[in-house]
Amino acid sequence: MLLAWDDKYSVNNYLIDEQHKKLFELANMADNMIGKQTNPTEIKKMLAALFEYMRTHFSDEEEYMRSIQYPMLESHQEKHKHIVSEMTNLVKNMGYDFKQKLVIIMEQWLLNHILKDDMGYARYVEEMNQERAKAAASAKKDDAPTNTQHNDMLKKAVMEPKQKQAPAKQKQKMHMYTCLCGKTYNIAPEIHAKIQAGEGVKCPDCTTFIKYITDIEA
Q1: Is residue 1 part of a domain?
Q2: Is residue 143 part of a domain?
Q3: Residue 179 maps to a domain
Q4: Which of 106, 161, 185, 192 makes the best surface tag, with the fewest CB within 10 Å?
Q5: Is residue 6 within a helix (H) or strand (E), and if so which, with residue range?
Q6: Is residue 126 situated within a structural domain?
């Protein structure tokens, strides 16, 4: 096993953390398959899935860094390109040293990239939040929603955890969504259906489209 997920690896963003967890899982599945001398075709399929998910994650991560105006974005993008290039070569050229190369790439990425590089923007956000808190303490500011229509839609769709609800006879199936700023929303089935049909809904704070994560009972 390459590495197990631990909460200490969190970057304090729900979407990015969930993607990191999934990538840990896929990387360890690939390593396990290779250790058991699985059919090379199956290994290649697993690596392709890992590779595609990695690219999706990098895209979302770069969009998030762009939204927070992270000063090290370009440097981070270059590291992403390097990892993608290494994985591309690995998938295309499965030689005798295949597993050794995989372990090197995964360790460099999982250990060095997530635990060091990704923690950089996590610290940056924390510092920005501290500065905002100080500014808010000295002068209160009214932050109006940037998109009234989407904000109203979310208010109707989201079940606030502190809001008193009438006693329910049975739990209702809800759909968890998140956005790049890390907030999570419990979306009602009728709104979920509209989103899945192509009607985009944006977070009122970071103005990025919310993304479906999983189903829950609430």
Answers
A1: no
A2: no
A3: yes
A4: 161
A5: none
A6: yes
CATH number at residue 69: 1.20.120.50
Residue indicated by tokens 């372990």: 103
| Domain membership of residue 188 as a residue range | 173-217
Let me know whether 78 and 133 are in one domain: yes
Per the CB < 8 A criterion, the answer to whether 46 and 26 are in contact is yes
DSSP 3-state of 147:
coil
Please tell me the pTM assigned to this model: 0.65
Residue 27 three-state SS: helix
**Residue whose token pair is 């989201």:** 158
The two three-digit tokens of residue 29, written as one number? 């599945």
Retrieve residue 108's tokens.
């460099």
**Is the model's pLDDT at 126 over the cut of 60?**
yes
Q: State how far the Cα of 29 lies from the Cα of 35, in Å rounded to an integer.
A: 10
Please name which of 204, 167, 158 lies closest in space to residue 185, comparing C-alpha atoms: 158
Domain shared by 42 and 87, yes or no: yes
> For the segment 27-66, what is each residue's pLDDT rounded down to a tens digit?
777 777 766 766 777 777 877 888 888 889 999 999 999 9
Strand residues in 48-178 grouped as ranges (E): 173-178
| Domains held by the chain: number | 2
**Is the separation of the CB atoms in 87 and 30 below 8 Å?**
no
Among 77, 111, 138, the domain-final residue is 138
Taking alpha carbons only, the member of 209, 157, 141, 216 closest to residue 181 is: 209
